[in-house]
Amino acid sequence: MKSFRTRLTLILMIMIGLTMIVAGVAMAKVFKNSHIIVLEENMAREIKLLSRTLDFQSTENEEAITYYTKEAQEIGKLIDSRVTFINSNGDVVGDSEKDPLIMDNHLKREEIIEANRSGLGHIIRYSSSLDQNMLYVAAPVTVGNVFDGYIRLSVSLRSIDEGLERGWATMAVWLLILFAIAALVSYRMATSLTLPLEKIIKVARRITQLDYDARVQLERHDEVGQLGKAINAMADSLQNQLKRIRDNEDLIQSVLDNMTSGILMIDVKGNIAVINPAAEDMLKVKSEQVLGKSYLEMKQHYELSKVLKEGISLRVAIHEERSLYYPEEKMMRIDGVPMLDEQGSYKGILFLLQDISAIRRLENMRSEFVANVSHELKTPIAAVKGFAETLLGGVTDEKTVRSFLQIIYDESERLNRLISDILDLSKIESKRIPMDYSPVHLSSFFISVMETITTMAKKKGISLQMEIPDELFIEADEDKLKQIFINLLSNAINYTQEGGRVKVIVRHLEHDQGEDRVQFTVSDTGLGIPKKDLPRIFERFYRVDKARSRVSGGTGLGLSIVKHLVDMHNGYLSVESELNIGSSFTVELPFLQEHEG
Ligand code: ADP
User: Which enzyme class (predicted)?
Assistant: First the structure.
């Protein structure tokens, strides 16, 4: 395809070429004509000169032909022309080039007719004998009564033709040079016209290929400049619109990315069109692997696929709760809503997935807790009731009566402890009690803790030891801290045989980076805890050995209260234990608490 520029250049060059050829032809014509006129004038002058200077003789004379032929040859040589003498009858009496005797009458020749009429005749005629164009000029000449006739001169026009040919050759060279210059100029002109258009086309193409930064750089105010500006404005507006669309997309994407619920959209064809990170996480799939694929690809989630299938085939809203078993067992709430576009036609179905395992677990724990509490309360009440009934039945032996009353007293004590532990725990769990932080001087704190439990220890002959830095403080809720250590220490005493040892070690852990912490270790040389029970001892009502606990009067709530209180202090609780050697509980608390606000 020829470009506009090439076409324009070609047209300009053809026009220039044509003009130059026409001008050349016209000039050649003018040149030739003026040359011939000059030649004619010269020849007329020569005829005039001849008519004055030649020594004419009578044409009737017998030697006339010889004489005039000789003269004609001599003069012809001199003036480099053919010379012809013709008498008034039109007979040739002398010719420089031909024998007059074989020449026909010349009276009817055009130049002679014209010479008769106007005094000077001229004509250009092709001479077949000489094979060239000849210019004939004739004039009537009368010299007294000696000569009456015509002198005719003729010259070959070959020199003019040759001159013209040479002229044409020079002109052709010049024409070529001019043409080359014209070509260059017209190319530049065409370029200056089409270059800006080409620039605009290039920019428009880049915009089509989504390169919205492309702009036309033109410093022009004409139509082309305006076209450039219009293209730039169009690119601006496209860019703005695109940015708005991208911003919207980003917003929607970040909403999807940050949702804690899973989003799964299935399109009309049953393919997965959208899946957000939460859903990927819940279903343990990667978006790259499932996007654009059929929802049936997720067959490992059998229950989910069933619900999806129902929603997709019926195109109705769906609200279901199902247990999924892959990758782990969990309870899922699945809500599906069909999506319609503005015209109301079906576009797919959007599913919201919520992992409600934690809520269900909590609900289960609640009811389990209620069941446990009722069970725990029932046992001491049954004992109190049983022994009271026996006493009412009329037991008289004073020793038995006393021992029964002692049991009733112990059981009601246990009941009391149980109720106050349950109350504590429910208060702590419902986070109703605020933390009341203050600096606690640890060595004096432990002295007061030991005072509380020292009678208990003495009863079992257990030695209490402390290893606490003198001037160590910690920021804590003192009452709750006390509850933690009284629980841990009474467990240690309870689950240690007579004559054992219970030890408290407090250490200040100074960290280079991060916060300082304080580590408390409560260790005993008691019964220890079997490995299999270790992970569960912090659960409510969990007791390693019911019998062992009953003797100790434990409720199974102590350690879960401790765990909660340590959590409230932003600390860690861990346990190490070996059966029949002893247990060691470690509490690590931050040195300073982070205060809100
Ligand atoms: P309890 O009121 O029965 O002591 P806890 O929640 O305090 O309940 O403790 C849970 C169980 O952990 C106890 O029943 C006991 O078997 C075991 N346990 C706790 N502390 C110790 C310890 N220091 N040594 C051995 N076993 C312990």
Answer: transferase
Residue that has been written with the tokens 């994407």 in this structure: 253
User: CA-CA distance, 150 to 104, in Å (whole number)?
Assistant: 15
Q: 10 Å Cβ neighbour count for 533?
A: 13
Give the mutation target among 534, 559, 564 for probing the ligand 1 site: most ligand atoms within 8 A of CB: 559
Virtual CA dihedral for 93, 94, 97, 101, nearest 10 degrees?
Answer: 30
Q: Is the pLDDT of residue 597 over 50?
A: no
State whether the beta carbon of 583 lies less than 6 angstroms from ligand 1: yes
- Domain parsing of the chain, residue ranges: 2-163, 259-355, 360-427, 435-590
Q: How far is the CA of 541 from the centre of ligand 1 (A)?
A: 10
- At residue 431, the pLDDT reads 77
Ligand 1: which atom is nearest the Cα of residue 554?
2
Give the mean model confidence (pLDDT) for residues 141-167: 84
Q: Which of 301, 302, 312, 310 is nearest to 279 (CA)?
A: 301
- Report how far ligand 1's centroid is from the alpha carbon of 554 (Å): 8
pLDDT digits (tens, 9 = 90+) for 197-226: 888 889 889 988 988 888 888 888 888 888
pLDDT digits (tens, 9 = 90+) for 475-508: 999 999 999 999 999 999 999 999 999 999 999 9
CATH 3.40.50.300 fits 259-355, yes or no: no
- Residue nearest to ligand 1 atom 8, measured at CA: 556
| Residue 524 Cβ < 6 Å to ligand 1 | yes
| Residue 556 CA to ligand 1 centre (angstroms) | 7
The CATH T-level fold of domain 360-427 is: Helix Hairpins (1.10.287)
Q: How far apart are CA 280 and CA 287, in angstroms?
A: 7
Ligand 1 neighbour 522 (Cβ under 6 A):
no
What is the torsional sign of CA 128, 131, 132, 137? negative
Query: What is the average pLDDT across 566-591?
Result: 95
Retrieve residue 292's tokens: 């654009």
What pLDDT score was predicted for residue 595?
73
pLDDT band at 584 (very low <50, low <70, confident <90, very high): very high
* Domain 435-590 annotated CATH 3.40.50.920: no
